[in-house]
Specification:
The protein is 80% helix and 0% strand. The protein is globular and about 60 Å long. Helix 1 packs antiparallel against helix 6, helix 4 crosses helix 6 and helix 12 runs antiparallel to helix 16. It is mainly alpha-helical. The two termini are 30 Å apart. It has 3 domains: 192 residues, Growth Hormone, Chain: A (Up-down Bundle), CATH 1.20.1250.20; 51 residues; 114 residues, no CATH class.
Amino acid sequence: MPRFWLVLAATSSVLGMASLDTLAVTTAIPDIQRDFGLSPAEAAWVVAAYVLGLVSVIVPGGRFADTYGRKRLTLVGVNVFLAMSVLCGLAPSAAVLVAARFAQGVGAGLMLPPGRAIIVDAFPKERIGTAFGIGASVSGIAIVAGPTVGGLLTDLLSWRAIFFINVPLGIVALLLVVVYVSESRDPLPRRVDAPGMIAMFILTASIATMLLQLSRWGARSVAVGALLVVAVLGLVGLVAVERKRTDGLVRLDLFRRTEFAYAVGARFALSIAGLSTAFFMLLYMQDVLGYTALQAGAGILPLVGTAIVMATVSGVLVDRFGERPVVFGGLSLVLAGLVVLLFVTRDVGYLYLFVGFLIIIEFNCSLA
């Protein structure tokens, strides 16, 4: 077997492990609530802390990889991810669990950015597209399968097993990276943009906290207003810092291109729609429909197969009709799915919920 396929196996194992943890814990939220006596808003931090940790370092993570070595950063990220997974599994309190989830997300944010560059270095030019496609499929399948895996482990063992399962997966990923991935870095590395990193973290952390606590504090509360001000200051600071740097984290000049700005905005909206509806659907099935964690996870298992189909079909449609009609059609259908979910009540059944969620998630996958 050519070595580049083994390199792909290494990067895909890292990508799959990080993607699996995005939603795997969602089916265990009711159990975590009971164990620690949490409100729904407090329990949401168990999921949100991971995503917040990931997004806070994933952009500068690429710079770290170029400067200090892509293999090295991948190994650092995997080790942090594994250590924090163990801490999550042993967490004696909700505060420790949320803090460990944030640090686990940081580990994921460090180990993911080097993957694309590692693939480009290892693969023949004519096969890079295939490698990226396989990696995207692994990520999509892992995200969609996460709730089912989490539900199975929660029902059979405990919610803590969701984190302990990362240990054998992580060891396999470590061995593959150590044995098959060669070290590489940018021959002309750029400086790490520390001010930009701080401004970006302030921006993302304040927005995430504001959104998560909005229902608890109220839209007119002083705390929400203060966080909004902090978010605006973070955004202003980020723009001010990046405008003065030629090697900053964010190339602001790209946003002058209308297509790029719209694409980023659409991707942002799609991510919010996908993750928020997944969280809602899984909790609805358990808290309202009375499903067990395993049943709730299995409830979205059919999405795995359709995600693979949609990823293939969307590529064919883009080749035939171009990007604009496919993206417009996909966004329209995502909006339709959200409208369907607007009318969810305690009396609707699984089928109604599934149809709305299916539309949103599948076209998220196809447009990713």
